[in-house]
Specification:
alpha/beta; Rossmann fold; 5-stranded parallel beta sheet; 6 helices; 5 strands; 17% strand; globular; binds 5-O-phosphono-beta-D-ribofuranose
Length: 162
């Protein structure tokens, strides 16, 4: 199976990235995690993106906050699908990172999930990889069914309490 590359702009983004790694582990999808910044280590971020396809990656998650250019900078250097996670910082509640990540110019797409949406970033990667992987698609179907069953249990409990 192709690997997922997870890049974060700073180790302070790790709590958000952990939501993605937990999700990938549960689905038994191989991944690598790195701290590369579009601003502080632009050469390393670029090199990772340029070599990612040849290095066995099938999709890349880029998590960054503030003036979040990481996902766009990665996307500029690969045609692998790039999923951006805008991370919330203290001043602007993540709106800064959301707009920086989502507003990509035509030709260089970044699939942007919600602010701090680490789990959905991983699920989107899984869905991309599952296009050509029936076993992974079955795991995703099973997860959806299990998630729905949990909601229906909550419905029964809430409904019975009134
Ligand atoms: C961004 O700036 C990082 O992705 C992080 O979300 C934010 C703050 O970084 P640190 O100052 O905590 O390293 O580039």
């Amino acid at each position: 199976m192709k690997k997922v590359g997870i890049i974060m702009g700073s180790d302070s983004d790790l709590p958000i990235v952990t939501k993605a790694t937990d999700t990938l582990k549960a689905l038994e999808i191989p991944f690598e995690v790195h701290v590369y910044s579009a601003h502080r280590t632009p050469v390393e971020a670029r090199d990772f993106a340029v070599n990612a396809r040849e290095n066995g990656f099938g999709a890349i998650i880029a998590a960054a906050g503030m003036a979040a250019h990481l996902a766009g900078a990665i996307a500029a250097n690969t045609t692998l699908p790039v999923i951006g996670i805008p991370c919330k910082s203290s001043n602007l509640d993540g709106i800064d990172a959301l707009l920086s990540t989502v507003q990509m110019p035509t030709g260089i797409p970044v699939a942007t999930v919600a602010i701090n949406g680490g789990a959905n970033a991983a699920l989107l990667c899984a869905q991309i990889l599952a296009v050509e992987d029936k076993e992974l698609a079955a795991k995703l179907d099973a997860k959806r069914a299990a998630d729905a069953a949990k909601v229906l249990e909550k419905d029964a409990a809430i409904s019975a309490s009134f």
